[in-house]
Design brief:
By secondary structure, the chain is an all-alpha fold. The protein has two domains: 125 residues, Peroxidase, domain 1; 129 residues, Orthogonal Bundle (Peroxidase, domain 2), CATH 1.10.420.10. 48% of the residues lie in helices and 2% in strands. Strands 1-2 form a two-stranded antiparallel ribbon. The protein is globular, with a radius of gyration of 22 Å. It starts with a helix and ends in a 20-residue tail after the last helix. The relative contact order is 0.17. Its main location: secreted. Its cofactor is Ca(2+); heme b. It is an enzyme of class 1 (oxidoreductase).
Length: 321
């Protein structure tokens, strides 16, 4: 009996060591919280839906926040960290300063999850789930979110400045930025379709609507100029999709075909170049767009996550424990 107990203990220890050896190679899984926090996803969804019911625009903001997280250091929650003496916050980068929104919703979701499962669910995972739930809440696709990310203890304003696309970027630059993260031009065009919801500030599209360029519909430019003067009004808002600004659909691509893309980085996707074919396809096939968008979002969620023993689980999303 004593011998059996001895070998049983050895077997248990071996199993423990074997499992720990895989810690640094842990893979994301949709079932990651099934036993440790089975109500995590419904809790996050409840918070997200409540926020979107108060402000429809929040759906776009939360999708964008996940994107801006994953493109900088991977999907590690770094975009959520506030400035400290040792952290240069990504919130103050060119792409995020006075632009990124939804931090309070993520914190609310984190607070709600901490009440039922303290120290279990990462802020990076909450961002990923919130993006999916935001899309579904405004009529867009849903997808299976893989889970198990951990949170970073660092942020990088310099990487945010260099790696995130800007509203004035042309096609070649966009293709390069997305390619650096492993995305094809088709996937880039699909992800750009997130601009079917949300709004942009006047300062991001002023140059386009006053350009008198051949790539912008004159009537559309005139309409946008009413709320975006040539000087001043930098923070005035306009919908990225003028047809159904609060509904996730394929009208974004129909707008591009009609030269009614709001941002330079939007219209450049349909301007006589290599991505015209994808824009045309998505403008004609909403189901294809929906499917491709969901697949690209899953792929984006796989960007360099911290797993296993790497990173931490933050108690609040804006600060290191």
């Amino acid at each position: 009996m004593a011998v059996n107990k001895f070998f049983g203990a050895i077997s248990a220890l071996s199993l423990l060591l074997l499992l720990s050896s895989f810690g640094c190679k842990a893979q994301l899984s949709p079932t990651f919280y099934d036993y440790t926090c089975p109500n995590a996803l419904t809790t996050i969804r409840s918070t997200v839906r409540s926020a979107i019911s108060c402000e429809r625009r929040m759906a776009a903001s939360l999708i964008r926040l996940h994107f801006h997280d994953c493109f900088v250091q991977g999907c590690d929650g770094s975009v959520l960290l506030d400035e400290t003496p040792t952290i240069q916050s990504e919130k103050t980068s060119k792409a995020n300063n006075d632009s990124a929104r939804g931090f309070n919703v993520i914190e609310d979701a984190k607070t709600a999850v901490e009440k039922i499962c303290p120290g279990v669910v990462s802020c990076a995972d909450i961002l990923a789930v919130a993006a999916r739930d935001s899309s579904a809440a405004v009529g867009g696709p849903s997808w299976t979110v893989k889970l198990g990310r951990r949170d970073s203890t660092t942020a990088s304003r310099s990487l945010a400045d260099s790696d995130l696309p800007a509203p004035f970027h042309q096609l070649n630059t966009l293709i390069s930025l997305f390619s650096n993260k492993g995305f094809t031009p088709r996937e880039m065009v699909a992800l750009s379709g997130a601009h079917t919801v949300g709004q942009a500030q006047c300062r991001t599209f002023r140059g386009r609507i006053y350009s008198n360029g051949a790539d912008i519909d004159a009537g559309f430019a005139s309409t946008r100029q009413r709320q975006c003067p040539s000087t001043g009004g930098d923070s005035n808002l306009a919908p990225l999709d003028l047809v159904t600004p609060n509904q996730f659909d394929n009208n974004y691509y129909k707008n591009l075909v009609q030269k009614k893309g709001l941002l330079i980085s939007d219209q450049t996707l349909f301007n006589g170049s290599s991505t015209d074919t994808f824009v045309t396809e998505y403008s004609q096939n909403p189901q294809t767009f929906s499917s491709d968008f969901g697949a690209a979002m899953v792929k984006m969620g796989d960007l360099s996550p911290l797993t296993g023993q790497d990173g931490i689980i933050r108690r609040v999303c804006s600060a290191i424990n």
